Amino acid sequence: xxxxxxxxxxxxxxxxxxxxxxxxxxxxxxxxxxxxxxxxxxxxxxxxxxxxxxxxxxxxxxxxxxxxxxxxxxxxxxxxxxxxxxxxxxxxxxxxxxxxxxxxxxxxxxxxxxxxxxxxxxxxxxxxxxxxxxxxxxxxxxxx
Length: 144
What we know:
Layout: H1 2-20, E1 32-33, H2 38-41, E2 44-46, E3 52-55, E4 60-66, E5 82-93, E6 96-103, E7 108-117, E8 120-126, E9 136-141
Antiparallel strand pairs: 1-7, 2-3, 2-9, 3-4, 4-5, 5-6, 6-7, 7-8, 8-9
C-alpha cells in the first residue's frame, strides 16, 4: 500500500513539473566538445534544411536562411532562419570552440558550440529557451 502512495506522489510531482515546462532540456547533438583550428572554422556550414553559413578567414560571414538562436521579436518572427552578413569571432573555453556571428547593422547575433563526431565537425545551439522544448540548430561542414 505504501508503494502505491509513493508512486502516486511521484506522478503528481512529475505532472506538476511538466505543467511548468520541460523536465530537462533537449539533448545535445551527438559528438564530443572540440576545439576547432581556424582553418576548420572558415568553411561553409549547412543546417540540413537549406540554410548556409559561410565563415570567411577575414572574420566576416554571409548567411542564407540559417538557423540560430536569434530571439528577435522586434525585428520579425522569433528565431526564424536568418539571412545577412556581418562579422564573427571564435573563443575556446574548456576544450570547446564557441563561435558567435554578429549580423550587420549589429542588431542580432547568435552563438554556436563546436562538436566533433568521428571526422565530422558540427556547430550547434538551442533555438529559444531549452526549457520551452524548442528544437536544436545543428550545422555541419558542407563538402563540395
